[in-house]
Amino acid sequence: MDIWEKLYEKAREQYCPQEVSPFVYAHHVVCALESESGEIYTGFCIESCCGVMDLCAERTAALNMYINSGQTVVKRLIAFRDKAPFGSGSGMPCGACREFFLQLSEKNKDMEIMVDYAKRETVTLGELMPDWWGAYRYREER
């Protein structure tokens, strides 16, 4: 079993769409990521009637990683709804998630994001976010 299959299986365990209340819907988008140390963390999407309280599966997984280990660097990430990413933009993190990962660590520009599970096609966050506005702050910090 390769790392992508492990990530897929861990994320799939989280997939069980449910209405938490008349206002909150959860577990309909899932994510698994591999941290810099090789540990796997998962997350699921939580949506409410008030958009500012929504939390994507990718950010939930990243927060689980940080809360449970203090890590901020992600090596690989897979996210999906009812089936593995199949190309055509499926499985892509939203803009807020992309931004969060770059703000979490400069190294996350190198993280691989699954684009097509069957073909094992990936893209890096840096490819999705070229010329990121905050890169200069990391340069200034060094």
From TrEMBL:
One of its GO terms (cellular component) is cytosol. SUPFAM superfamilies: Cytidine deaminase-like (SSF53927). GO terms for biological process: nucleobase-containing small molecule metabolic process; pyrimidine-containing compound metabolic process. It comes from the Bacteria. Residues 1-136 form the CMP/dCMP-type deaminase domain. GO terms for molecular function: cytidine deaminase activity; zinc ion binding. PANTHER family: CYTIDINE DEAMINASE. This is Cytidine deaminase.
